[in-house]
Amino acid sequence: MLTKVVPATRQRPGTVTHTDDLDPVQVKRAYKFRVYPTRPQESRAVRLLADHCDLYNAALAERREAWRMRKASISYGDQSAQLREIRAADPHGQGRHSFTAQQQTLRRLGRTFGAFFKRVRAGQQAGYPRFKPYQRFDQVLFVAGDGAKWEPATGGRWAYARFQAVGRLKVNQHRAVQGRVKTVQLKRESRRWYVIVVTEVEAAPLPATGRAVGVDVGVARFATTSDGEVVPNPRFLDQARARITDLERRKARAKPGSGNRRRLRRRLAREWRTVRNQRRDFHHKTARALVDTCDALALEALRVANMTKSAKGTVEDPGRNVRAKAGLNRSILDAGWGQFTTILTAKAASAGRRVVLVNPVRTSIDCHACGASCARPRQDTVICPCGAMDADLNGARNIATRAGLGSGRALVA
Ligand SMILES: [Zn+2]
Fold it and tell me: How far is the CA of 370 from the centre of ligand 1 (A)?
């Protein structure tokens, strides 16, 4: 599940607060499902993307010209107002498409310009928004009930997503969709098609627990909390690593261009897909457990870049095989940290819990007790004048402190 937390209106962005009465917090959830269009549906979907791409580029051209000719800036509102005319002039092209979906495409351009002007105002380097080629324009967003309809799977096997000018597409709905469907998006990723269903649910606050922790996500263990709880790396990682290493080796030996090599490549892709799914499932379970037992959680922002750096030092004896293994380890784990943060943040918002993201600089190397810079002779240990400590626990406590959750030490014996 992809998740994005959007606070309800009237709330400051970035904060999720709770009142038990009147004004429930709305949480957005996004579900991504594979779509199986028929050949004719697929060619209509390609045409839909192309038409929206044309609209996007035309609107971009208008903004460029206005700026070049008379230093005038054109807003989303101006462009949206012209849509009716454009559609009337092109009944077999633009006129066939959903009006509100076209507005979404114009809004998308508006956001691109918004980000551009923001960078300009901040004095940062900013490239003027560019025209998009057809092959790079890969999604169209529909407002549910207006040119698009979501039909969930009931009893039978398939769900359907209906899009104006494309048709009713078969969807493999592998999980239940909760909440009111707000938007339905059609998306192309290389040769596959997906639908992204975004819903809105009311947050259901969980009872307070009195626990607030910092969470350090690592390589040796998946996570360590500032009050000493350890979440080990799941077993499936080892199993997957063994299978993937074996397949990689066999593929390297197979003759280029041979059927054997092609089969091995497909099996590898399948293994990776399995790992991704297991990992996502593991992230959901781990996040669930933390959200159920904590009122507030602190994590490092942008953990991934940090991790890759320290993971290089993880292996104590970097022989050839060990290094390859570490690299694979990293790629299996790496992709997951951002996802875990996203899932945890969304679950927390749904449950009325607080998540604080802190600056990751030096969390692993400064002593949480005295602030001195520690030595780190091994990946799992830091040593400071106060003594030797578990490195991940020290990191988790620094994270808790930076988030203003206290040191998190009270519960540790
Ligand atoms: Zn110290």
Answer: 4
Tens place of pLDDT per residue across the chain (413 aa): 333 333 333 333 333 333 344 456 788 888 999 999 999 999 999 999 999 999 999 999 999 998 888 878 889 999 999 999 999 999 999 999 999 999 999 999 999 999 888 888 888 888 889 999 999 999 999 999 999 999 999 877 799 999 999 999 999 998 899 999 999 999 998 889 999 999 998 888 889 999 999 999 877 788 999 999 999 888 887 788 888 889 989 999 999 989 999 999 989 888 888 888 888 889 999 999 999 999 999 998 864 444 444 433 333 223 334 454 455 555 555 556 778 888 898 899 888 899 999 988 888 889 988 888 888 888 788 998 888 999 999 999 999 999 888 654 443 32
Structure tokens at 92: 């077999």
Among 267, 271, 269, 291, residue whose Cα is nearest residue 279: 271
Q: Say how many Å lie between the CA of residue 215 and the centre of ligand 1.
A: 20
Pair (177, 231) in one structural domain? no
Question: 175 and 222 share a domain?
Answer: no
| Number of structural domains found in the chain | 2
Q: How far is the CA of 409 from the centre of ligand 1 (A)?
A: 14
Contact 204, 347 (CB under 8 A): no
Q: Residues 358, 217: contact at Cβ < 8 Å? A: no
Whether 209 and 293 have beta carbons less than 8 Å apart is answered as yes
Question: 385 CA to middle of ligand 1, Å?
Answer: 5
**Alpha carbon distance 358, 79 (integer Å):** 40
Closest CA to 349 of 9, 11, 17: 17
Residue 290 lies in a domain: yes
Measure 366 CA to ligand 1 centroid, in angstroms.
Answer: 8
CA 396 to CA 409: how far, in whole Å?
10
Same domain, 318 and 300: yes
Q: In angstroms, what is the span from residue 397 Cα to ligand 1's centroid?
A: 12
In a domain, 410, yes or no: no
Q: Name the residue range of residue 278's domain.
A: 212-236+274-402
Distance 382 CA to ligand 1 centre (A): 10
Ligand 1 center–CA 71 separation, angstroms = 59
Distance CA 1, CA 343 (A): 8
Give the span between the Cα atoms of 300 and 288, in whole angstroms: 18
Whole-structure pTM value: 0.62
